Request: fold
Amino acid sequence: MPTLKDIRIRLKGIKSTQQVTKAMKMVAAAKLRRAQERAVQARPYARKMKEMLASLTSKVDTSLNPLLSPREEVKKVLVILVTSDRGLCGGFNTNIIKMAQRVIHEDFAALHAKGEVTLICAGTKGTEFFRKRGYKLTSAYPGVFQNLAFTTAREIADTASKMYLSGEADRVMLVYNEFKSVLSPNLRTEQLLPIVPEESKGKADAGSEYLYEPSPGAIIDELVPKHLHTQVWRVMLESNAAEQAARMGAMDSATENAKELIRLLNISYNRARQAAITKELSEIVAGADALKQ
Reply:
């Protein structure tokens, strides 16, 4: 049975941990507010970019732009994985890494066996995991979320485009956490390249004719790189918001667990203290009885 001193030391340690987790929860909540605002603000622009691209590609020959032209056979695959830079965020990194492994080992198992699957890792956790296990990393961006910038998203998108155009990749996949709510992030896998324009669902284009200057083809050539930059940037913002939500939830659970442990340890402390007092009283009574005899 632990002594009163042991219980006091453990209580002190758990209370200190509880203060840390409570502070981390508050910090994560503040960061989540800003990250959520940025992610939500990026969605309309990214969505409208997709709609414009879908509208334009319906009027031109998509084979004129190589980034819109699918390959007849997929021989090489590039996976862009977005994780966090730090831990203490529950299963955020574990789940998305498992998703990436499932994509590599199940969806592209034959290509992976030939060594034709490469990765671009944004975030320290994913970089460390796959680098230690000998996966092929084209480039890595550890610490990217410490100072999240659009230039990084543009660099990743440009790297993916160059690899696709040069034949180093016949398909480019995005694997990331999409921010859905504080309680439930959404694991997503999307095809970045070749670009598959979504069918236009709006009624505004029905029966309408537009004049394009200089031409639909020229506009697409200008729009496609911007579209790729925007989609990668949106993915990074979504992942950042999902990370902060996961960290806030994990720290909240840790704080509640610490509270429950403190309650149980207080009960154990009181029982041990009561047992010690009862033992002392018994010894005093026994000593008094011995003196009377």
Notes: The chain has one domain: 34-247. DSSP finds six helices and five strands in the chain.
